[in-house]
Amino acid sequence: MFWVGLLVPITYIGVLVGSLATFSSLYRKRKAAKAASLAPWFDPHIPRNVYLSLLHLEPAPGQKSPVVPDSVLRAALLRRATEDIYRVLAIRGAKAALGILVQRGSVGDDLWQRFQRAEQEIEEELRDVVKEANAFSPGWGASIFQTANEMASNAIIRKRVDDIQAQAKAETDWWEKKRSTIQSEFMKELYEGSEDPAASSSTPQKSTTAASTSTAQGGSDEDTVFVEGGGPAAQGAKASAKKKKGKK
């Protein structure tokens, strides 16, 4: 009776442990399948694919020399390391901001899983590059990424210089167009300003000419009006006019 009573809790514990183990296994498999189905964080690693393709080229039958020289393989490996530098910089720049977004709940866990998988892949990639570099020359693995970093920095600076030069050309064209517009507007205002004094000065001349013409057409001294209070010439003209009236 004692063993029969003890068998029931043991069976219960065994069933519970088995259920938990089954659930854990299924959950891990489902999580791994879901992680494998997620889109990669980076684009395909083209320099790595090129290096592996060159490395695994088989020579033609009867050919003793290698298909690809070591210098080409070294250059391809260095180009692969340069691309790894770009990806490491991208991972470092995005990690802090992505961690804050995950803590706030702004992004889902799928994005965080993609990022973690990208970190693991880049770590394996760096170890593989160091291993390949040491296979070519012992100790080259310790300095290959330093050379690749210099190449990446040079490429970034060259790209920035090209962008600045392109922007400078566009700004120069804009300024030339703006300057021509300002110059044309200034000349137009200057031309209009020079025409106003001429028009104002011609108006008194026209009125004076019209007055003299009307005086000449009258033909008699009686219709002529003299301004009083003038100088000696005005007084003499007034006296001569009176004498002519007396004679008439």
UniProtKB/TrEMBL annotation:
Originating organism: Trichoglossum hirsutum
InterPro entries found in the cross-reference section: Sec66
Keyword Transport attributed: no
PANTHER family: TRANSLOCATION PROTEIN SEC66 (PTHR28229)
Entry protein name: Translocation protein
Region (Disordered): 191-248
GO cellular component: Sec62/Sec63 complex
UniProt keyword list: Membrane, Transmembrane, Transmembrane helix
GO BP of this protein: post-translational protein targeting to membrane, translocation
Keyword Transmembrane: yes
Transmembrane stretches, start-end: 6-27
Compositionally biased residues, Low complexity: 197-219
